[in-house]
Amino acid sequence: MTAKYDLDKIKFATDGPTFERAISIYESGGVKNFRDNEMSGFLANVRGSGGNVYEVFVSARRFDEGDCTCYLGQNDTLCKHMVAVAIRAVTGGKPLRDEEKKLVSRPTCSGLLGELSKEELAAIKKEITGAMRYIKPYDGPSRTWFSYQSSLAEGCNRLAKIVSDLLVGEQTAKLLVDTLLRLDDRLSRGGVDDSDGTVGGFMEEIVAVLQEYAKLDPNCTKAFGVLKDRETCFGWEESLLMLIKN
């Protein structure tokens, strides 16, 4: 049986501490007796940190659907044991590379000056568009609210990884400003419900990255000119425009 998700889906859609603990379980051989249930998912016995062994089922359709006999699992909460089984399902038991285990939960400045080739820039733009699909309008019933918030967080996590790997320069500064404007449009006119501040907080972190860009390469401030006379949803452009004046 093949899972309909991959390691990136698991990593970007799981909170950091849970993912890191699940990786620890997987790498220490804590997932035992792994097998398909021949119908809809995967079964395993998982050794917990306290030495207890739990019975775990994870759906092949969604890694966050399933069951675990631990306390969290019995309270319908995604636990590290379920995530560990999902990781085993998509890796086939193979060792993980350092890059696969690396979790980026917030955007940072790479500190590396440079420019992308035309092909690299096109690929990055495609990745950004793919991540933006998770930051979508909300018009569902209240029972899907938490699932929707998870989607927003996943989109921001995927974008954070992209941003953190970018070379620093006027070209990528323009790319980040464009991304901010796209997010701003979704918040102000696109029907995104960001009442818990996930997207807004992420946008503020990108602004901080752009401020670092300007310190490393003053030419990056040229990318901020498109923000003049624009009104954004919470004034995030003001600190960038100040850099032009200074």
In short:
This protein is α+β, with helices and mostly antiparallel strands and 246 residues long.
Explain what the structure shows.
The chain is elongated and about 60 Å long. It is built from ten helices and four strands, in the order H-H-E-E-E-E-H-H-H-H-H-H-H-H. Helix 7 (145-164) runs parallel beside helix 9 (198-216). The chain has 246 residues and is α+β, with helices and mostly antiparallel strands. It has a four-stranded antiparallel sheet.
Itemize the secondary structure elements and their pairings.
Blueprint: H1 7-13, H2 16-27, E1 31-36, E2 41-47, E3 53-59, E4 66-68, H3 71-74, H4 80-91, H5 98-101, H6 118-132, H7 145-164, H8 170-188, H9 198-216, H10 238-245
Antiparallel strand pairs: 1-2, 2-3, 3-4
Helix pairs in contact: 2-4, 6-7, 7-9, 8-9
What is the count of β-strands? 4
Strand order of the largest sheet: 1-2-3-4
- Into how many domains do the coordinates divide? 2
Percent of residues in beta strands: 5-15%
Instruction: Name the helix and strand elements from N-terminus to C-terminus, one letter apiece.
Output: HHEEEEHHHHHHHH
Q: The biggest beta sheet, please?
A: 4 strands, antiparallel
Assign an overall shape. Answer: elongated
